[in-house]
Amino acid sequence: MTSLATDFTSLANIDLPIVQAPIGSATTPQLAAAVSNAGALGMLSLTWRSPSEAREVIRQTRELTDRPFGINLVLHWDPVERLAIALEEGVPIISLSWGDPGPWVEQIHAAGALLVHMVGSTAGAIGAKHAGADAIVVQGYEASGHVEGQTSIMAILPEVVDAVGPTPVLAAGGIGDGRGLAAALCLGASGVWMGTRFLLTEEADAHPEYQGWMVEAGAGDTIHTTLFRGGWPPNTPLRTLHNRSLQLWEEAGRPEPGRGPGEGDVLGHTSKGAPIMRYHDDFPGARTTGDLESMVLYAGQSVGVMHEVLPAAAVVQSVAQQATESLDRLGSHG
Ligand SMILES: Cc1cc2nc3c(=O)[nH]c(=O)nc-3n(C[C@H](O)[C@H](O)[C@H](O)COP(=O)(O)O)c2cc1C
To answer: Best substitution site from 142, 144, 200 to test ligand 1's pocket, by max atoms within 8 Å of Cβ?
Structure first.
């Protein structure tokens, strides 16, 4: 049987080359711990949590697992306070994205943690390697969340592997099951960074109706768009299922941002009671109320190979098993 061990699994001290990508507020201690307990790597997104909440979710995760887990910070927001908290709490893997990791490398390494940096291009990957990243995530255009990648993962992944090797490279976007993991390993990746697949888990903070729409959707139901906003630099693209707000905007002749029909509508509320406005980039969490179908419904093109909501541990097991079977099948042709 083919082993799935890679240089990244040794580096990160995990069993399987599968990372649950930081999926914003859908990350929970339960999700990260379940993934890590299953032998993969769970991640918490801290960018938009208050410092006290950031410390709290790290501690909760630590209570649920003895295995390594990581945290992510998006560099469009000042990471100073949350990074210091994560390092004080002894988090072993720090993921940064959307910016220059250089200013943070020394502090992360001094605390004994690893830096994993996400990029969308070969130039970005070379920059991250020179800055001192221990592993590099390359994101393809197929990905969900906000999308830095401008090319397909199939094209960019081997290019980045050639450019930055032997630094381990992880593939993000377009990967929804074990066949995708096997393909990424064949292209030279040391692992995969899967977001949408882990949105479709019982432990993710995502609304069950939204999860149901993802189960029904195929790759062609997702849209790469700059229509939705919220604190990110203007025109940062994201990938969502086609939704009611997009339909409304298209029917109005695709007006300039800020001039769409229903601009300023309150669509509903988060679990904390904060309003969710039309064309904002908040997706429906498990306890969000209101017109969910008009809210952003992040989903990657890989959504079409996902047919059910599963416990996170079952996702890890099935991705690993299917990857092993795929690689064994290829090996038997040799
Ligand atoms: C709901 C959602 C939120 C995300 N939030 C973050 C984030 O906070 N930081 C980050 O670096 N990436 C974030 N991402 C992007 C992921 O890191 C990853 O690149 C992406 O999910 C891979 O594509 P896939 O969803 O098709 O697997 C997010 C993705 C999703 C779906």
So the answer is: 144
CATH of the domain at 31: 3.20.20.70
Q: What does the chain come to in residues?
A: 334
User: The domain containing residue 329 runs over which residues?
Assistant: 7-203+311-333
Q: How many domains does the chain have?
A: 2
284 lies in the same domain as 315? no
**Which amino acid residue places its CA nearest to atom 3 of ligand 1?**
23
Q: Is 119 in the pocket of ligand 1 (CB under 6 A)?
A: no
Within-domain flag for 46: yes
DSSP code, position 310: B
- Buried-exposed string 60-83: b where 16+ CB fall within 10 A, e elsewhere: ebbebbebbbbbbbbbeeebeebb
Mean pLDDT by 10 residues, the chain (334 residues): 92 98 98 98 98 98 98 98 98 98 98 98 98 98 97 98 98 98 98 98 98 98 95 95 96 91 95 95 97 98 98 98 96 72
- 225 and 195 in one domain? no
